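job 3f2a | input accepted
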Amino acid sequence: MAASSHPIEQLIALARRYRHLHGESDRAAPGSLRREHQGELEEIRRQYDTLVDRWIRDPADRELWRAFLGAGEDPPEDPLTRTPPVFVGRSAGGARLEVRAAGADDYELLVDGRSVDRLGQRLSLDHGQSTPLHILDQDWRETSEAPAPAMEALRAHRATGRGAPPWEWARDLFADGLIDANFGLTRRGQRLLRNGS
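job 3f2a | predicted structure (197 res):
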């Protein structure tokens, strides 16, 4: 199974794989194939539980996701399902620009939460803090919207490179487009840490 770049998609893919394998195991004759399936099912459940613990904060929501593993229903609703932004910035006048990937080479531009344009081209986001992004006839300075303690934890983890990542902040950092599903820095995360934001 190819790893998805989105934690919710990873949970859904693992649940599908678990159900498929469980069905195969039920249809298999007793013996080594069932034992082999049992080992795979336990490994999938372990991976799934790890993802639930890392990405789902609320205990009630965790129970919904754990029930989803064996159920054939729709996955629980989760605000994290939105594609993370590749850029968030403010204009001199205080307007907020959000750029989200909307396909292979497409980007949706949202100003103050309202979709205003879609670019069907590569967008260069290799700018520094002293060089704002110029788009929609305005300059936009990139900002982070993750809580300050999340940014501090991310900086500390990246500075030492040791120990487990601060998973307690994963949802905030992912939703702000700073990390991927494996806690690796995105290009946006790299820019913001490099620029000291």
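job 3f2a | The mean pLDDT is 87.
job 3f2a | closed
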